[in-house]
Amino acid sequence: MRSVSSNLIVERVAAMCVSANRILPQDVRRRLTDCAALESSPAGKEIFRQLKENYELAEAESLPLCQDTGQAVFFVDMGEDLRVEGKNIRAAINEGVRKGYSEGFLRKSVCDPFSRANSTDNTPAVIHFDIVPGDRLKIIFAPKGGGCENMSRVTMLTPAQGWAGIRKFVLERVAEAGPNPCPPIVVGIGIGGSFDSAPILAKKALLRPLGDKNPDPALDALEKELLADINKLGIGPMGLGGTITSLDVKIAAAPCHIASLPLAVNINCHCARHEEIEL
Predict the structure, then answer these.
(1) Same domain, 11 and 137
(2) Would you say residue 38 lies in a domain?
(3) Do 150 and 133 lie in a common domain?
(4) If you placed Cys at 141, which of 16, 53, 54, 148 could pair as Cys (CB 3.0 to 4.6 Å)?
């Protein structure tokens, strides 16, 4: 049985909260560059130029990439042979969020759903746990802004609707979202599972590097088909029209009930912030 200090988790999570909000991941930078070269609209090209200037200034000046520094969302793989000493892991992660968002001067966006009173420290975080073999701890942080999260949807299709129904729902959702999620967007799609698990599949799909290939060849082909269809909508960067509405489409699938076809669409903005550590 291997042990890890909760204090170490606090410090590393705090650092992740700050760096993920200030430094755009390399895969996102590469994808923005590649898509900028494909953009045909003069307005769209200017938006891509501004996005590049923004992430370069954010890193150089230690400033947030976006004023919405997001609700703190974590995916945690905890080894079954690992023990956390001190605080329990949920408390340690929340303390890390509290520390990172306060000391990093990041906007605190978490509030009571009715009174709208702000929690003042961006907690509680949204944490998804998986128990995995081994004695390691992997923590993925993916801050999610409200503008793109609000455009996400989950539905229960009938099995007979199949891929045609999935494609129709995704394209309608992106079209209805329009400029609201700050395109060019990344579209995460969860197919199967259940009503509650499909949205988690969709959000986890967004963690894959942009521009990669889905390990399932069939899903990889469907991702490419949907990406082409979405970019034909003409919404374009920041909704000003153009060639590139989406940087990428990511699909995750799971077995489901014979009478159901759960479907979730989780939209991310062009920032697609994420960071991963292993302890």
Answers:
(1) yes
(2) no
(3) no
(4) 16
Confidence tier at 278 by pLDDT (50, 70, 90): very high
Q: What is the mean predicted confidence (pLDDT) over 40-48? A: 97
Alpha helices, DSSP H, located in the chain: 6-22, 26-38, 42-61, 89-103, 146-149, 162-177, 198-205, 217-231
> Is it the case that residue 72 has pLDDT exceeding 90?
yes
Kindly tell me the burial class for residue 190, based on how many C-beta atoms sit within 10 Å of its own C-beta (0-12, 13-18, 19 or more): buried
Model pLDDT for residues 218-276, shown as the tens digit of each residue? 999 999 999 999 999 999 999 999 999 999 999 999 999 999 999 999 999 999 999 99
Q: Tell me, yes or no, whether 54 lies in a domain.
A: no
Assess whether 78 and 138 both reside in one domain: yes
Q: For residues 137 and 206, state if they share a domain.
A: no
Give the H/E segment covering residue 86.
none
Structure tokens at 70: 């997001």
Answer yes or no: do 84 and 158 share one domain: no
Per-residue CA distances from 34 to 10, 31, 236 (Å): 36, 5, 15
Q: What's the pLDDT at 145?
A: 95
In whole angstroms, what is the distance from residue 124 CA to residue 109 CA?
11
Distances (CA, A) of 180 to 29, 183, 254: 21, 8, 29
DSSP string over 105-138: TPPP--B-TTT--B-SS--SPEEEEEEESSS-EE
Number of domains the chain contains: 2
Residues 238 and 175 in one domain: yes
pLDDT for residue 1 is more than 90: no
CB-based contact 274:25 (threshold 8 Å)? yes
* Residue 227 counted as domain residue: yes
State which residues form the domain around 189. Answer: 146-273
CATH of the domain at 221: 3.30.1330
